Amino acid sequence: MRRRAASGAAGDDRQAAARAADSADCTRGRSPSPCRLIDLCAVWDAGVFLASAAGKGAPSGVPGRRLNEAETLNSVREAQFQRLEAERPRRPGCGARGPVLRMAGQPPPWAYTAILLCALSLGRAIEIPMDPSIQNELSQPPTITKQSVKDHIVDPRDNILIECEAKGNPAPSFHWTRNSKFFNIAKDPRVSMRRRSGTLVIDFRSGGRPEEYEGEYQCFARNKFGTALSNRIRLQVSKSPLWPKENLDPVVVQEGAPLTLQCNPPPGLPSPVIFWMSSSMEPITQDKRVSQGHNGDLYFSNVILQDMQTDYSCNARFHFTHTIQQKNPFTLKVLTNHPYNDSSLRNHPDMYSARGVAERTPSFMYPQGTASSQMVLRGMDLLLECIASGVPTPDIAWYKKGGDLPSDKAKFENFNKALRITNVSEEDSGEYFCLASNKMGSIRHTISVRVKAAPYWLDEPKNLILAPGEDGRLVCRANGNPKPTVQWMVNGEPLQSAPPNPNREVAGDTIIFRDTQISSRAVYQCNSSNEHGYLLANAFVSVLDVPPRMLSPRNQLIRVILYNRTRLDCPFFGSPIPTLRWFKNGQGSNLDGGNYHVYENGSLEIKMIRKEDQGIYTCVATNILGKAENQVRLEVKDPTRIYRMPEDQVAKRGSTAQLECRVKHDPSLKLTVSWLKDDEPLYISNRMKKEEDSLTIFGVAERDQGSYTCVASTELDQDLAKAYLTVLADQATPTNRLAALPKGRPDRPRDLELTDLAERSVRLTWIPGDDNNSPITDYVVQFEEDQFQPGVWHDHSRFPGSVNSAVLRLSPYVNYQFRVIAINEVGSSHPSLPSERYRTSGAPPESNPSDVKGEGTRKNNMEITWTPMNATSAFGPNLRYIVKWRRREAREAWNNVTVWGSRYVVGQTPVYVPYEIRVQAENDFGKGPEPDTVIGYSGEDYPRAAPTDVKIRVLNSTAISLQWNRVYSDTVQGQLREYRAYYWRESSLLKNLWVSQKRQQAGFPGDRLRGVVSRLFPYSNYKLEMVVVNGRGDGPRSETKEFTTPEGVPSAPRRFRVRQPNLETINLEWDHPEHPNGILIGYTLKYVAFNGTKVGKQIVENFSPNQTKFTVQRADPVSRYRFSLSARTQVGSGEAVTEESPAPPNEATPTAAPPTSPPTTVGAPGTVSSTDATAATAEATAVPTVPPVSPTTTAATEATATAAATAAATTTTTTTESPATTRTEIRESAPDEQSIWNVTVVPNSKWANITWKHSFGPGTDFVVEYIDSNHTKKTVPVKAQAQPVQLTDLYPGMTYTLRVYSRDNEGISSAVITFMTSAAYTNNQADIATQGWFIGLMCAIALLVLILLIVCFIKRSRGGKYPVREKKDVPLGPEDPKEEDGSFDYSDEDNKPLQGSQTSLDGTIKQQESDDSLVDYGEGGEGQFNEDGSFIGQYTVKKDKEETEGNESSEATSPVNAIYSLA
Questions:
Q1: How many helices (H) and strands (E) does the chain have?
Q2: Cα 884–889–894 angle (5° rounding)?
Q3: What is the pLDDT of residues 1153-1190, one digit of tens each?
Q4: Which residues touch 122 (CB under 8 Å, ≥6 apart)?
């Protein structure tokens, strides 16, 4: 069926016009007939205006003329097709991408309507609604809805499932191919297909090997309208092979050497997850020194002795089988020069040198060499890895050559050894390098990254649903690296082998359909592939011929509240896509614009409902096959409002309270009034009575106290009003009731009314809302107009809170609507409901637009802009602007144009020429006043010349002076902004020092001939170029100049560390400066001892450039030390870094004062305060007090001066003597004007808390200024209400002067006060070594030890040889070594070796006076010894109980044993 044009015009030349429209650059998808009208754009390009592109059967009477210029039409068609090939639009649009229209004459008015219809129709594609009746009725080719992933890996223990689901009407049938051959499912009993689905199920319950079914599968879904294809699904069976058995010899490695333990896991599918554990399943602790690489190997940057305390086993976890396989563990044997595993060396600051391990520069363990390359696919994660060895362990840093790392995508892993960049794109390609460094040096590895890309969609083909006779196209655009190739198929067959279709034309990645018919239905496949992958997309072409249908119920009733926003829905469907229009009450024009807005889906939105909007709305959907309509009845209801609200009440216990709630509502709506108590539903008890307009509470009790909310609601809206009920005891009187009630923002005003209507004024009256216990102070009246900024509210005027009626001054021709906002000290109310509208009459404008400018945006134009006038200054309809301009020098006639916007571009202008500009406002009532003349300039072009004779003079190590010759003014071609120098650091004069070659710039504004470039790096080679800069940009660059900066002073040494291992020494360590700025010749260390206010003599030490540590021998254990370290070059010493030795543990540390604690000024140690003189009789007193642990202060702000009794300022100084405490108070009275007083300082040794009082308003900022005894001034800015302020950089025992002043007015300052920080150590502190009780205790302990030693000696002297046979009846065995003389050596328990006693190096116990063997005293002949030779275990004496009791020597307990047991 032929498609008729939307305009309805008919003509015999319809086929020619249709062919002219077929190639139109209208849309990527469908292009129904209205787009043929838009093809008039192309006809205009040819210089001929074609009035119609109508088809046969168009209704008569539509104006137009036939297309009878056949030759012109054919040439137009050819031009369109060429433009289609050269310029493919990315989004729908008719002519939006084409050339600028050139019309031979003014087109008729209906042409604009035709163009608009084209744009609307192209932006909308036919979509099948979800309505089941329509879905089941319309025919549709198959569409794949679900399929397995391209790489489908399955678990061998489960049945195999390959998914393929599709929809279509009629329902599609399915078949499969395997390895590009037909897969006959019926021949394999294990394979079945799910019902009404193409999903394959391969069942192995009866046997079979899953590996036999591996291969590439593809699903085909077919019905009578076409065939859809799934992706090629590669089926693989998961594999988790066993680890090969192997015997691993111990790995022998020298301490400090690097080590790699290789994992080499068995290849699995998918690859296993690797992790390292010990054989006892303890995880291996990883850190900067020991870590696992991405390949699974375990890397040791350097081996230490502790590494052989465990073994190392590589584990592989396989995903599908959920199994973990463990490799035989590695055992380490570390050779060391320090055989003892002294745990105290682990935290030693220089562990390696302490253990005799030589330090060495870094070297890379992975990857090898200095450079490598890596390829990554777009959209994947890029993982770069650098693992380095060295002693000490190197640090890894990452950089990108010529740019920064992408901060939003880059993250560091594995202790900075790995750099991961997520979602890689083409701009991430380039050279990356990792820098491994320790204190011995650095090394870097460069990784060249190439980003390739599997195909990805630019324009994926979409299903195309057309009406008969319509045109359309399928677009398949993909990109990749390398560029993918595109192959088209139809119904699963290559397009080249498909039957020819005269209505189809292939143009590369686009298939163009012309004059589609029912027989054109098919499913097309686009396959885009390169070496990295492929994309396959199905898109069907369906031709539907459906008259318009309404999808919503008919004659709906919509009820809405007055002044609300509502939307009327009218869902519809048809093919071709119908056009939808709305009408009200069956008459009038189409509803769109103003208060109405029609959406693309057909919904009609009414922005603000008024009474006159009530009625019957009809939506009409029309296409060439007919029309359908539906009606919606809209009823406007009055809002529900509580006009008599409940009021706060105070009731005595036992009395009756009544809360009113009178409501006004729409009588056609059912009203429901309910009550809440404390925002919860109120239970109506027998003491309460709920009536239509009130709530009565009888016998009020304490539990009735609370907030009561009246909720008046209908099925459409509701209104709330709240009151608070206070219950008093019988004897109480309701005094100061409001003071005890909570305050809140006022309720919004209501019942706005306009009276006294005049041309330029109106009276607005309103009813105030409840003030919620805080009087209303102001009312703000706002207005809104519906022409320029509908829905935007502007402040009109402000009135005091006692006013509820005001006369408002109005501007001409504004459709006003007002609302009121109430304000109290708590805040603003919600805006009132808007008033009714009032439009004033029009008048000519009384002003012109402001901020008129003329500036060029290109070199051959000038853009004239201005600030448009708002609704209150338009004064009439159709506000427009008369723009005039002319060249200033030529004094030519004025050019003028009328503009409705806020800009106009003048084209074809010379470069940077001054123009005179005028912009005058005009409306339908007349013109505004004569405008002022503004000077503007046309566009600038890039400068043509560069500065010449550039001379460079080196001023110092960080600055140079530049001098150049100015360029001629005619070469600037614009306004000279500046001369600009581009410079970059080419290299450093220090060898092996990497420098950034990032280009920097320095600008010299105006027409200058010299300048200074500063902040350069010393001892470096630089290059410099100069350009001229105007508003367009940079001009050509001058000749490149080279210069070298001399040597400078170095930066401060890095990481200066002061450690105090004991009371005799202090260890200092530091790193080399970050910026040597020359050749280092050494370091200078200055240090001085101090104790409180006493400072010793300064000592100066000079070191070589390679020395980075030093040990200071303390002169005494009490004093602290202040160190200052700087590096030196030939130029001199650089910036010094200062540190102090650690404070002893008993020195007080600063504690933040709680903000709510009261001020404590009496007895605070070292406290200086300036306080109020609250009485004229105040006198100084000395109060000995115990110093508090943490002095507390609080911020106090007073808005008024103190009483008149203290008007005369008096100052009293009080000094309190206590051990190590000096307290000073400065008392002064509060002033009458803005001032700062009562400054209180609570100091400690290194910090001080500051508070003060002031008479400024809230939000005032202050500055605390303090000066030490070395006349060093420092300031601390303080935000408002940020007291107390803590000064944390003070020195112990130093005197400071301090004042506080206003940041806005330094002249308003407090009195200057003086305070001193307490000493870190003072001579008055008690030394425990000099205390009498301590000396006596030490003497008593010494005497007790002496007595125990004497007893021990006596007991030992009683041992020896005893005749045994006289005392024992038990004969000696033949093994007794003393049998010959009838005696044996015997010692009591005192002489047995103690557990943990010292042993010889070979593990035997040292001989004491006795020759007894340990075996004779134990139950067995085997002994156990610790690593240090000490004995482990217990032993027993070989004596009978009777013998032990009969031998007093054996019973005696050794005093030495007693001492050890106590220890």
A1: 14, 101
A2: 20
A3: 444 333 333 333 333 333 333 333 333 333 333 333 33
A4: 26, 27, 29, 30, 31, 32, 34, 35, 38, 92, 93, 94
